[in-house]
Amino acid sequence: MRFAVLAAFALGAAATLGAAQSTAHWDYQGKTGPLRWGKLDPAYQACSQGREQSPVDIRGARLNKGLEPIEFHYIAGPITEENNGHTVVMHVDPGSYIVYGGVRYDLVQFHFHHPAEEPVKGKLSDMVVHLVHKSADGKLAVVAVRLAEDAGNPMPPWPRCGSICP
User: Fold this and answer.
1) Distance between CA 139 and CA 78 in Å, rounded?
2) Each residue's pLDDT tens digit, 27-57
3) Tell me, what's the pLDDT at 29?
4) Do the beta carbons of residue 87 and residue 116 sit within 8 Å?
5) Centroid of chain to Cα 165
6) CA atoms within 13 A on the CB side of 129
7) How many CB atoms lie within 10 A of CB 60?
8) DSSP character at residue 25
9) Are 12 and 140 in contact (CB under 8 A)?
10) Looking at the annotation, which residues are catalytic?
11) 78: buried, middle or exposed (CB in 10 Å: 19+, 13-18, 0-12)?
């Protein structure tokens, strides 16, 4: 399966799903999926009312050429995988970081959501990768990379490479 990057990077201070403590079941599809999270439990209200908590439905976005670019400083290195029951989290060794607004944010982990959590004009992309960064003072910056299956240009079958291949 081939995924192609569809659209923009989103950067912002983000509250994580773990911030709201509740026992209400949530999922990525159906009646308990991202577009309904805010209605599952009062503790999840930020999911439908907030502007910094997933899922944020991106509507009316315009390119702002006045924003300074994000500086990416990523290096290769080992990762540790964790299945947390909702997604696969890749914890990275120190060294990779971004700079935005003169502030350094160290990459601490990245994880995947299938389908994506953040709709654009009410439509979810096939998958999103969240690159989670943290500044020295504890603020988070999350870069979201939206992915879509490229059904019109299939790749050859994945090579046989053991348990690490999809």
Assistant:
1) 24
2) 877 888 877 888 898 888 887 776 666 667 7
3) 75
4) no
5) 21
6) 14
7) 5
8) -
9) no
10) 86
11) exposed
